[in-house]
Design a protein that fits this description.
Oligomer: single chain
CATH architecture of the largest domain: 3-Layer(aba) Sandwich
Shape: globular
Helix content: 40-55%
CATH class of the largest domain: Alpha Beta
Number of domains: 2
Distance between the termini: 65 Å
Structural class: alpha/beta
Number of strands: 10
Largest sheet: 10 strands, mixed
Radius of gyration: 23 Å
CATH topology of the largest domain: D-Maltodextrin-Binding Protein, domain 2
Order of helices and strands: HEHEHEHEHEHEHEHEEHHEH
CATH superfamily of the largest domain: Bordetella uptake gene, domain 1
Number of helices: 11
């Protein structure tokens, strides 16, 4: 009886006009962002979500799950139902830095997620308060060495703390580091001259540099930024191997169907190839560097190993 019923069902589905199995996506998709609204990651995510929704024919809805240096959002994404309707728009903070910082992380960036696509980077720059008597990196290094403990830099998360400590260690100077709770608080004190310099992403730093409220001296990545092409890298200034940026990528919960992964990756390639979108992201200080899931998996593994070394060398701890 059961076999007969199955055969009848198969014949009925084969008839003209029978309903087809729904193709992905057939309803809205949630994209979890592990940071609060208003920041650079959130801004990029919202632009991408709008364009991805157009490409996929279904809305992509941002869900901000900020807190605990991104860990709250990462756990929410890892535990989401892997049905193809949850994506995770995140950064190296959750996927590479936190695993090096926290002993008992409640998620695993490789075991709990499937890489979907690389998105790009937020280039960082080293900027000083205009009252600091240094017009370039060589002068800043000389100033820091000549006045031990007189200069201070600000930071508000692990990537900026590590970038600053690595800079100080490589130049062989004694510089104070001052922790803040947000980029806004850090930049307020940098503009006011309460700290000497900071390493900040271009999303935050560019408007202040254009208004001459801070003086940018160098970018921190391995190559110059297209947004500040005249600004040298710290490698060019003599800091061998110095390379820090804040990267962004898309993941999905492990177990997500292959059809959804392939569709999301294809849509991401499509929107990141749009010149108008690239221009909009550039206004936020973001540089698209698209890549597929395999490239992202290899990149994540490399970043995990690199950040374990950085955290150990910089002696960074979390409370």
């Amino acid at each position: 009886m059961r076999i007969a019923t199955m055969l009848l069902a198969a014949l009925w589905l084969a008839l003209p006009g029978a309903p087809a199995v729904a193709a992905w996506p057939d309803r809205p998709i949630t994209a979890i962002v592990p940071f609060a609204p208003g920041g650079g990651t959130d801004g990029v995510a919202r632009i991408l979500a709008d364009q991805l929704g157009r490409a996929l024919g279904q809305p992509v809805v941002i869900e901000n799950r900020g807190g605990a240096n991104g860990n709250i959002g990462a756990v929410a994404a890892a535990r989401a139902r892997p049905d193809g309707y949850t994506l995770f728009f995140t950064t190296g903070t959750t996927q590479a830095i936190n695993p090096a910082l926290y002993r008992n992380l409640p998620y695993d960036p490789q075991r709990d997620f499937v890489p979907v696509a690389r998105i790009g980077v937020f280039p960082l720059m080293l900027a000083v308060n205009p009252a600091v008597p240094a017009q370039n990196i060589a002068e800043l290094i000389a100033l820091a060495r000549s006045r031990p403990g007189a200069l201070a830099f600000g930071h508000w998360s692990a990537v900026y703390l590590a970038a600053g400590k690595t800079f100080v260690r490589q130049i062989g100077a004694e510089v104070l580091d001052v922790p803040y709770r947000s980029s806004a608080a850090t930049m307020t004190d940098l503009v006011a001259g309460r700290i000497s310099f900071g390493i900040v992403d271009l999303t935050v730093g560019l408007p202040l540099a254009r208004g001459q409220e801070v003086r940018p001296l160098a970018v921190t990545g391995a190559r110059r930024s297209a947004m500040l092409p005249a600004l040298p890298t710290l490698q060019e200034a003599g800091l061998a191997g110095y390379d820090f940026s804040a990267w962004m990528a898309a993941y999905a919960p492990v177990g997500t169907p292959a059809e959804a992964l392939a569709g999301a990756a294809a849509a991401m390639r499509q929107v990141l190839g749009n010149a108008t979108l690239v221009s909009r992201l550039a206004e936020l200080g973001f540089e698209p560097l698209p890549g597929d899931g395999a490239e992202l998996a290899a990149f994540t593994a490399t970043e995990l190993a690199r950040w374990r070394e950085i955290v150990a060398a910089s002696n960074i701890t979390v409370e």
